[in-house]
Design brief:
It is built from two helices and no strands. With about 55 residues, the protein is mainly alpha-helical. The chain starts with 8 loop residues before the first helix and ends with a helix. This is DUF2892 domain-containing protein.
Length: about 55
């Protein structure tokens, strides 16, 4: 496995997106608005990175 500094931007975007899905699903199951909010902001960050660092 490569060290984190050698990972591509695509894997970071996929990591952020999958993390946001987990946070939103966990927040919905736990009925916790702050988890849903953190997941939403993580998804927004992944979308912005996808738009900015398009290969």
């Amino acid at each position: 496995m490569k060290p984190p500094r050698e990972w591509g931007m695509r894997s970071r975007i996929v990591g952020l997106t999958s993390g946001s899905v987990v946070l939103i699903a966990g927040g919905a199951l736990a009925d916790s608005m702050w988890l849903i909010g953190v997941g939403a902001w993580t998804l927004i960050a992944a979308g912005l990175l996808e738009m900015i660092y398009r290969p």
